[in-house]
Design brief:
Helix content is 19%, strand content 53%. It is α+β, with helices and mostly antiparallel strands. The chain has one domain (2-61). The chain has a 3-stranded antiparallel sheet with strand order 2-1-3, covered by helices on one side. Strand 1 and strand 2 (16-29) form a beta hairpin. It is elongated, with a radius of gyration of 12 Å.
């Protein structure tokens, strides 16, 4: 299932990572049985953003 993930993550710019979190939105596929599994969704978001400290601020079906 397609899910829209709202998040805040560090931004990489010119090889440097900002300390200030920047808001963003990603649309990705999540298995149907993991639709309400927030821990799985957070791990998926960490993989996509490559930021171990990413903050999930919301999610919904696309």
């Amino acid at each position: 299932m397609r899910m829209k993930l709202d998040y805040e993550a560090a931004k990489k710019m010119d090889g440097q990572t900002t300390e200030q979190k920047v808001p963003g939105v990603i649309v990705t596929d999540i298995p149907d049985d993991k639709e309400h599994d927030e821990a799985f969704i957070k791990e998926r978001l960490k993989e996509i953003t490559e930021d171990p400290n990413v903050k999930l601020t919301g999610y919904e079906k696309e």
